Amino acid sequence: MNRGTTVLIVLMMIAVSLAGCTGTADLEEKVSDLEAASEVDQATILGLEAASTADASTISALQGQVSSLEDQIAANGNVTQLEEYNSQLISNNAQLVIQVDGLKAELDNSPTWEDVDDAYQQGLLASGDTSTLDVILDRGSMKCGVKESQYGMGYLDSATGVRSGLDISYCRALAAAIGLDPNTDVEYIPASGSDRFEKLASGVIDVLIRTTTWTTSRDADLNADFAGMNFFDGQGILVREDRFAAAAAGNSATALDNANICVGIGTTTEGNMQDWFSSREIDFTSVPVGDAAEATAKFIDGSCDAFTGDMSAMVAKKWQLDTDGSMGGVDIWIASELMSKEPLGAATRDHDSEWNEVVAWVWYGMVTAEEMGVTSGNYAAKATEACASNGGGQNDPGMCRLLTENLGLGTTTNPLAGTWMQAVLGAAGNYGEAYDDAFCAGDYDGTSGSAAMNDCLISRAGTLNALVSEGGIQYAPPMR
């Protein structure tokens, strides 16, 4: 109900009330006046309502404008923040440009790969200022770290002063390859299992060729870089019959429960023996010894029931003790098991690449020569024949390279002679000849294969040390 209707009803009620007090005429006049006043009021009310509606519309519009202005203010705030970020990025970019320009300047002044290669060639980046090869040739002699007690590998005959063995032949071949006299210019320095790497690192020896096993930790942790592997061996055990009978043991090391076993200090055989026996739950007592001579003495006097080392050493030791009668009638036997892999080879100091390459490739050359049928007796004739022209080229380019080319070996100051391999063959023969001199009768022709070797202490036939062509793993990369 609106305000005008309410007023009219009130007026009518008043009129009725007044009708009882005054006359009809007066009442009608008053009603008429009131109606007129009511109409005026209604018109006023309608005007106010219209004005109120207009005001509400205006307020709504203003609120829309305020909201729009608030959005603009917020947007303006973001723009300002973005402008601040952009300003910071521009500043950072300017600083980066300065740094990049500085790095470019340093790079322009830094050594190139060619510079690095030249530095290596000059020995500037090696462990010393000069390659060991240059030092040896300036000195006029080579110091080779060797064994003196292992027949077949490194042995010194105390009665004659003559050295023999596969390691000794390797030393002689190496000396010949670099232009030294293998008979007079090699100084053999005894190196034990415990001091050999110290002697190598300190420069007491130039190269270590002493039944040394190539292992991960030796290669990575010691100042040593391995070269040619001249013998693939494994660990064996030599046993006194009076302590452990071979028949009862079944010729097996598994029967050596509670045995006292001599083992060299600083050798791989220490760890191998521990691994082998503990994995089989066999108890034993390790008797540490400084070298093979001490081990032999303790084995002979009974301080040790058994003696462990490279199988080649055990075979050589058995032959020696059986031959010289040192055991006083006590029989000795070798267990049938190979306890480990023992790749034996030469080692040089780390970061001495030119010298290490020479040491490695001298051995590979000896292996290749046997593969090609080139021996100590025919190398000169073979060189002439191989390099002769056949109308379209050489008769045998591969053999000609082996016998007449430098192949990049040596240093800038002291490159190897083109005939270095002929010098090697003249001093030590090919691999087969060197093996036969070390372990067999020494009458091998150098070409007929392992089966033609006679009276061998350790036969090469059917072993890892045979050439690949015979089923072994002695193998040389291409000589070219």
What do these coordinates show?
With 480 residues, the chain is of the alpha/beta class. Among the domains are: 3-108; 235-340, D-Maltodextrin-Binding Protein, domain 2; 352-470, no CATH class. Helix content is 50%, strand content 14%. The chain has helices at 3-19, 24-109, 113-121, 132-139, 166-177, 196-202, 216-221, 246-249, 268-279, 292-301, 311-324, 353-372, 379-387, 397-404, 420-428, 431-439, and strands spanning 142-146, 149-150, 154-156, 163-164, 186-190, 207-213, 225-233, 235-240, 259-264, 284-289, 306-310, 332-334, 342-348. The chain has a 5-stranded mixed sheet, sandwiched between helices. A 5-stranded mixed sheet has the order 10-9-11-8-12, sandwiched between helices. The termini are far apart.
Short overview:
This protein has 480 residues and is of the alpha/beta class.
Strand runs, count = 13
* Oligomerization status of the protein chains: single chain
Give me the strand/helix succession. HHHHEEEEHEHEHEEHEHEHEHEEHHHHH
**Morphology call:** elongated
Largest sheet: 5 strands, mixed
Backbone CA Rg? 51 Å
Distance between the termini: 119 Å
Low-confidence regions: 14-24, 119-127
Please list the strands of the largest sheet in the order they lie side by side.
Answer: 5-1-6-13-7
User: β content, as a range?
Assistant: 5-15%
Tally of individual helices: 16
Helix percentage range: 40-55%
Main structural class: alpha/beta
Give the averaged pLDDT, no decimals: 86
